[in-house]
Amino acid sequence: MNILYKNPNELSSLITNTYILSAVTAVIFLLIAMLISKMIAYEGGKNPKDAGRRKVWFWITGVIATAAFFCYNFFFVKEQIAPNPALRDSFNVCTAVSTGLVLLIYVVLGFVLSRFVCQRGKFGTVFPAK
Length: 130
Description:
Layout: H1 8-39, H2 50-77, H3 85-117
């Protein structure tokens, strides 16, 4: 594996990029969740289950986003840091915080979009106003 980050200055830029990538990852997976919710057809009748399916897929997509981001950082990015315990520990903290940030941005943005922007659309059933 190629060592790209050998000193604290280089690691600082990596940490900044990791936080930016966490926000981008959350938005991309939220768009995927919105696309999946649009693909689930409305059901008629007394007991429609389409809203429940959209909620389940919203949470599945969120878990996949969080797990994929963590695995990417842990298995690919961490290996490019010099085997200095201080640098690796600093990046481990960044990995934990940025992974939590993915889930937080995903849920908060999903709530805002579902509740206020896409109220009358299919994605509005993920967090219904009623």
